[in-house]
Each structure stands twice: as structure tokens, then as C-alpha cells.
Amino acid sequence: MRAPGGPEVAAGEVLLSVENVSLSFGGVKAVSDVSFDIRKGEIRAIIGPNGAGKTSMLNIINGFYQPQQGRITFKGEARAKMRPHEAATGGIARTFQNVALFRGMTALDNIMAGRTLKMHSNFFWQLLRHGPAMQEEVEHRRSVEEIIDFLKIQEIRRVPVGRLPYGLQKRVELGRALAMEPELLLLDEPMAGMNLEEKEDMSRFVLDANDYFGTTIALIEHDMGVVMDLSDRVVVLDHGIKIADGTPDEVKRNQAVIDAYLGVAH
Amino acid sequence: MALTAAAGADTFPKLLVRNARIYGARPAMRHKDLGIWQSWTWSQVLDIVRAYAVGLHRLGLKRGDTIAIVGANRPRLYWSVMAAQMLGAIPVPVYADAVADELAFVLAHADVHFAAVEDQEQVDKILSVTERVPNLGLMIYDEKRGLRDYDHSRLHSMDDVIEAGRKALADASVVAWLDAEIAAGKGSDPSIILYTSGTTGASKGVVLTNERSINAAADTVKFDKLTENDVALAYLPLAWVGDHYLNYAQGMVSGFCTACPENADTAMQDLREIGPTFYFAPPRTLELLLTRVMIRMEDAGFFKRKLFHYFIGIARRYGERILNGKPVPLTGRLLYGLGSLLVYGPLKNVLGFSRVRVAYTAGEAIGPDLFNFYRSIGLNLKQLYGQTEAFLYVTAQPDGEIYSDTVGPACPNVDIRIAEDGEVQFKSPGMFTGYFKDDAKTIEAMTPDGYVKTGDAGFFDEKTGHLKIIDRAKDVGRLNDGTLFPPKYIENKLKFFPNIREAVALGDKCDFVCVMLNIDLTAVGSWAERNNVVYGSYQELAGHPLVYDMIEKNIAEVNRSLAADRVMAGAQIKRFLILHKELDADDGELTRTQKVRRGFIAERYAPLIKALYDGSKEADISTEVTFEDGRKGVISARVKIRDMKTEPVSAPMGKAA
To answer: Which of A145, A150, A152 sits opposite B35 (nearest CB)?
Structure first.
């Protein structure tokens, strides 16, 4: 399978651009005529009130939804259609609004699962867990252990994730996404349902992942404080329409944004 | 001195050189990193420490300087201690979880110019108080993550410092210079300054010297027959005298291997993997372990639960006597053997105690029930009594002479006497030379003839000749009717119950005894889950009527046991409440070693204490709390108070009623 996407993109250049994208479900317009871009190495936030089309936007980016109109360019290569697994091999990883882990598997195995796409030994060897497969597993285990160390979850390495508290499950999920060594990491409400301390920890990890692994991050988040602290640039959606785009300061001062959040009659 | 000669050297750097010579290929340290145990032999450690010392010297660290060590138990922080000592500088370990204020106090008081720290968290903390520590010039960090964008004019990575030292050591003149530095170290030089946690007032810097530290460690290494084949897990704070003594000093003297856990939260798993032969745990940790075991047994199936409780009963009856080598009936021996196979062995394995030959507990009085539990399952747990000023050991229980209510006879070469007012005073080989920059306090802590005042009340047991500590001398009080009131004794009885995490007993100069409690969130939380009790926070669970019912039963049991004791029968608990928040060292309610600060709590919870004694059914309280990042907030709550029925006092024997 050929990975979609062209050559390497230098830091600061556009990694992914969304042009005039529209998506509707039956008569409901989830996203209409939205354009923005994500630059390599930045933390980009997508915010907006409930039902603004944020998650739909993420789903379009990673190929889960196909937009009816518009164009998506990733690493310089335009595409109309991309399937989720193509997005994954192309270097896009994501986490979900509601945790989507293998609940019966340990934290370690869940994160190891994130390495699947990087494993090349064939099914036969993997089944026997010998020869090249063993060699490969040892190498991948090292990267996984680095992520475990990075996220400070050593003590839950062997715990089935179903038994972990929510905040830690979220962290494991981030770990699995990071294990893919993605070029673009999509985070769907990484701080949802967390208490202040967990939010601070998670913010730290997002910033560190961006800094340490150089991962480009696009995130959806409700907590304004978090968004303004973390992101380099923010795009604001309301009712499927882009109403603002810029640095956190610019967005904060934007009248349309203030209206959308305070609920001015339309 | 003859004793230092026995240990082979009079300073720690010289000991390190000796260890590299005679135990060169034996492991000196282990550390779990990226999921794999890494080891360093004594000769590798010596190489690293030599390079590190040269690197530090090039940055300006010199003889007599102080250097702060801040972080968890990691090999490279221990090596920072060794490297500093090699140059004749004085390491000052600081509690890694200290809030910025405490940190600033110690750094400023110890006048540190350098700090060796674990990671970004500690760097940030120190940077936040930098204006209060004007002399702190350089920080050396172990973990580089997150520090890339920091101003590196005052920050160096340990890797770089060691590497620079290694390169410099290629020059023979540098090698000779370093050898001369090591040789120039004197036994009377200070080897470390340990800041006491202080149940009262600000902390004091206890200055210990090389020679005295080594002498003390040599005595106990001999006492417990520790050798280079032993293994210990270093999981208690670096800044605590216990870690520095038990792991660092004893490790250096005996050449045993010190293993460092992966991080603070994995210590229990690491314990099991390493299987130490020498183990130390404060009573609190032992309590926590027992609580965990009990919770898991509650969740076990019917058969396993029955099996467990039956054999724990057997252990209680025979275990202690078997461990002490006393005669036990054959059936008892057989049953205990079966119990070892089915319960005690697997249990010890899970707890990581399978290979433990010598285990100690100290730090505060341990409840006899707790102590006996561990001994009964065959763990050679012993008590020691000591303090930072003594460089830990004052007394220790010898194998085979264990009584749960005494702390043992004086350690070898320790001289103990009881002052007229009951205070324990001692002279020991490891005793401190003074408090750093505080002669007035030093004089206060010593008697004119050179004994150290412990501040604890105690006496020698007539039967055994062992020392018995009653309580902190100033904590023991009396009720208004004259009944003796030792708060710790009552608290320990309460804390034996897995549901009760912390207890504060009140009663001095009052009519009766009241207690304020913290529930154990793990134990009570697990109970709540099994009983469909819904709660959102500690506060909510603590105030739950069913939780009060459960705790009431525990207290009733304590009252029964108090009633059985003639002296204590009058000190039964009449009223209690469960606090709305957990006592926390960050709020100053506990010391960093988790001891209750009574005076402070009495002040802070004055409205609750008033309500306990004026008969109210509930009371309002609002307290300031400190969050982990140092910000403050206020918690308000209405706390319920319950009355207890007290047991009738059993007829006093041989005394007219």
C-alpha cells in the first residue's frame, strides 16, 4: 500500500490545508464552506459552541467522513477521498472524545497496538514470536517504553485499561496515538471530564509532545483557558461556518466569537 | 580510630574507592529505566563519580561549599552526593515534594551555591523562589525533558557535566589532583546536612560528619550482619535520615546493592521484582500494605477468604513464637507450615518480602497489632528507635528479642540514660556535631555533659532491659480526672483499622477523650463500591452516615480494648468526628515524614474541637488548603459529631474500688 502524501514538509510550512469543505447529513449542514490550514510544528485548536461542527471537521481530516465539496491537501498532495487507514499510514493519528481503547488489554499492550503500522515482519513470524518478529518487538517495545516514561504511567504498565480511572485512560489513549509517531495528531477534547489537576497534567503532556517529538497537533477543546494557553492558532466554528481564525489574542477580541459564545440572537 | 579502620576508611569517598577495589564487579546500584533493570558495579560507580566530581569542580564547586540535592531516589542523585563528598563539598538533600516555601527556606539557610535536581518540576520550583536564594548559581539536572527552551547559562545536564569530567580525566595531572582531593578528605569533615522535618517549628539543619556516620553504620552493619550480598530498595525520601543511613551509609560500608524504583508509584511492584534482603518501612507504609491486602481479600471468593482468615488466625497464635525460636506444640508447627505454603508464603511474595532477612520499622510508634501481624506471617520485622541527631540508631531490637511494646536495648556503642523528668538522652557514635548555623539550638538540644536530648519520654523495661518510649514527652497529658492520656497510643489503636487513615486524639486537660479522623479513601472507597454507596469526593464519603456507622463500630472495638487495660480504661473515646479533608503535609498539618503536627491542628480546627467538647451535633469549619502547585483555596464543610458508648471499666484487680 502506498502511503498518501508527498515529500517531507519543513517546520512552519503548511502541513494540511482544508479548502472550501462542506459536509451535510441529509438536510443538516454540519460543515459549510470551511477553509483553514495547519502548519507543521504548531498546536492548532478548533473551538466552537456545541454542534458547531468541530468533531465533524476532525472526522473529515482523518478520512472518516467524506466531504461533499471541497479539497483537503496533506503534505502537498490533494485528495478528494481518503480512508481512515490511509490517513493512519500517512501519519495522522487521533484520540477520541469518548475513550476508545481495548479495555481488556493492558496499558502497555494498548500502546503497543499503536505500533502495529510500523511492524513489518509477516504474520507467520509474529504468530511464532520468533526470529525477525522478536527482534522487531524488542525495538518497538523500546519506543513504547519511552512513551510510557514520557507520560509517567510506569505504575499502570500491566494494568488492564478497563480498571483505570478516566484521566489515566485518556493518557493511555494519547500514548497509543503517540506510538504511531504521527506527523499530525488530532485530539478530540483531550481534557473533557477532567478535574483541574488532570487538565494541567494533560496540557503539560500536549505541550511536551509538541516540543519533544515535534508533533503537529490539532485539538478540539471546550475549556477556553486550556485552548488559549496551549494553542498557537485557533479556528472558531459556529453552526458549521468558520467565524474566526487567528492567534488566541485575536480570536478573544473577535466580536463574532464573543457573540457566538454569549449566545446573541441570530 | 579503631572503628573507622574496621570499616576501611574514614570518609565516604575513600569507602567508595575501597568498594571499587574489593567489590569491583559486584552491583552497587540498580535502577529500573524504560521497564528494564539497569545495574552499575562498584567500579563503574567509582568511574562515574570521579568524572562527575571533576565536572562539578570545573563548574566551581569546591571544598566546604554546600550543594542541594532535590529529587526522588535515582542513582544519579546518589552519585551527586558521592561526587560532592569527593570534592569535600557538603550535600544537602531536600524533600522532593517540598512546596516552594520550604524549599526556599532550606536552600537559603544552607547557603547553597549549587543544586543537583531531578527534572523540570524541580527546576521550575527552584526558579520560582530564585530571588530568595541569591547565591544559588548553578543547577544540574538529570532528566532533560521539557528543559530545552530554558536559559542554559545557569543550567547544566548531568550527562554533560560527567562527560566533561571524563574528558578532563584523560589528563594524568587531573587524575593526580582528584586522588589528592580524595586523600585530603578528613573524617571530621561534615559529610552531609540533613534538615529535620520538625513536628514543631521550622526545620533545622543537622550536620553529620564522615567519620561518625561511618562508625555508626559500621556498628549496625555488624549488628544485622549485612554483607555485599544484600540488596535494599531505596524508596524513601533522600532527605530523610533513614534513607541516608540505611541505604547510603550502610550500602557504602557493607558494599550492598541499592536498587532505585522506576518512580515513586511503582515502588511496590519494584519491591517484588527486586526481592530485597534488607527492608525498611515506616509504620504508615506497613499500614497501607495491610490495608491493600485486606481490601483485596474482601474482594476474593468465599473459599479464599475463609482460608486466609483461618491461617492468619493460626499465624497470630504461633507465628511470633516460631520466629523467636520459642517452643510451639507440634500441631501448631504443622498448621503454621501448611499456612506458610498456602497463605504466608504467597502473601510475602506479593508484598515483595520473600527474601527479606532483616526488616525495620521506625519513625513513629507502631501499633502492636500491626507489628505482630507482619511478624506472625514470618517477616523478621524489628523496631528501632532513633532520630536525625543520632544519625538514626539509638536502640534496635536484636533478633530473637522482640517485644512489640519496646524498641530494644541501646545499639552497640550507644549510651542511653533517662533524665529525671523521664526524657531519654543518649550519646552515640553517629551523633551530630550541631545544627547548621544555629549554635543556640545546638546548645538547647544537648546536655552540658554532651548527651543529646531526644524530647521523648521513656523508661527501661524492668523485665527485658529494653527501652520503652511512651510518647513525645510533651504530648503525654492527663484528663481532668487524672487519667493518663498518651494520644499516640490511642491513635495507633485506631489506625490499625484499614478504614482509618489518620487519627488525632484530644484529651489533655479535658474531661474526656475525643478523636478526629481521616478515613482511608482506598479502603472505604472499595467498601462503598461493594455497598452501592455513591460519592463524589473525599468530603462526601467522609460525611456519609453509613461511613460514620462503620467507623463507630471500629471505635467501639478500640474502647473495648482500652477498657481492658486498667491504666487506660478512663481514656476511652467519648465523641468523634470524621474530618472533611485529608490531613496534608502541604497544608502544614503533617510533617514531610507524615507525622501529625498536634499544635498546628489544634489551632486550625479549633471550631471543631470546641464543638466536640460543648456537646454540639455538628460544626462548621472552613480551612485553607494548598494545592500541589502552591495556590491556595478554601474548603468549607459542616462536620457531624457522634457520641460513643463507653465500655464499663473492668473491675480493677487488687485495688479497692
So the answer is: A145
Chain position carrying cell 570521579: B50
Residue B652 is predicted with a pLDDT of: 46
Beta-carbon separation of A148 and B146 below 8 A: no
pLDDT of residue B623: 85
Q: Please indicate if any CB of chain B lies within 8 Å of the CB of A159.
A: no
List C-alpha distances in Å: A1 to A89, A123, A125, A136, B461.
Answer: 9, 16, 21, 20, 82
The amino acid at A83: R
Mean pLDDT confidence for A36-57: 90
Can you tell me which residue has the cell 520538625?
Answer: B198
Burial class of residue A56 (count of CB atoms within 10 Å of its CB; 0-12, 13-18, 19+): buried
pLDDT tens profile B481-536: 888 788 888 888 888 788 898 999 998 889 999 999 999 988 898 899 888 888 88
A-B contacts at Cβ under 8 angstroms: 34
Strands B257-260 and B27-33: parallel
- Residues 6 or more apart whose Cβ sits within 8 Å of residue B376: B312, B315, B316, B319, B320, B323
pTM of the full structure: 0.82
CA B287 to CA B501: how far, in whole Å? 9
The distance of Cα B232 from the centroid of its chain, to the nearest Å, equals 15
Query: Cα separation of A4 and A61, whole Å?
Result: 13
Nearest CA in chain B to A157: B35
Residue B336 half-sphere exposure toward CB, CA atoms < 13 A: 19
Residue-averaged pLDDT of chain B: 89
- Mean pLDDT on A64-81: 84
The predicted pLDDT at position B495 comes to 84
| Element at A127 (helix H, strand E) | helix A123-128
- For the segment B168-191, the average pLDDT, to the nearest whole number, is 95
Q: Which domain holds residue B491?
A: 477-643
One-letter amino acid at B385 equals: Y
Bridge partners, residue A71, by sequence:
A19
Q: Where are the domains of chain A?
A: 1-91+182-266, 103-180
- Residue A114 C-alpha, separation from nearest chain B C-alpha, in angstroms: 18
Structural domains in chain B (count): 2
> Residue B129's CB: how many other CB atoms inside 10 A?
18
End-to-end CA separation in angstroms for chain A: 48
Nearest to B576, CA basis, from B646, B653, B656: B646
Domain contains B524: yes
Phi, psi dihedrals of residue B190, rounded to the nearest 5°: -60, 135
Which comes out higher in pLDDT, residue B238 or B648? B238
Q: Which residue has the cell 549549587?
A: B114
In CATH, the number for domain A1-91+182-266 is 3.40.50.300
The CATH number assigned to the domain holding B209 equals 3.40.50.12780
A211 touches chain B (CB under 8 A): yes
Decide if B173 is inside a domain: yes
Categorise residue A140: left if φ over 0, alpha if ψ from -120 to 50, beta otherwise: alpha
Tens-digit pLDDT profile for residues B44-81: 999 999 999 999 999 999 999 999 999 999 999 999 99
**B34, B266, B628: residue with CB nearest A155:** B266
- Nearby residues of B78 by Cβ (< 8 Å), 6 or more positions away: B29, B234, B238, B248, B258, B260
Asked whether residue B59 is domain-assigned, the answer is yes
Please judge whether A211 and B263 are an interchain contact, meaning their C-beta atoms are less than 8 angstroms apart: no
Domain presence at residue B442: no
- Are B256 and B227 in contact by the 8 Å Cβ rule? The answer is yes
Q: Which residue of B has its CA nearest to A209?
A: B146
H or E element, residue A179: helix A166-179
Interchain contact, B266 vs A154, CB within 8 Å: yes
Please check whether residue B512 is in contact with residue B520, taking contact to mean a CB–CB distance below 8 angstroms.
no
Contact assessment for residue A96 and residue A173, using Cβ atoms and an 8 Å cutoff: yes
Q: Which of B387, B462, B483, B371 is nearest to B426 (CA)?
A: B387
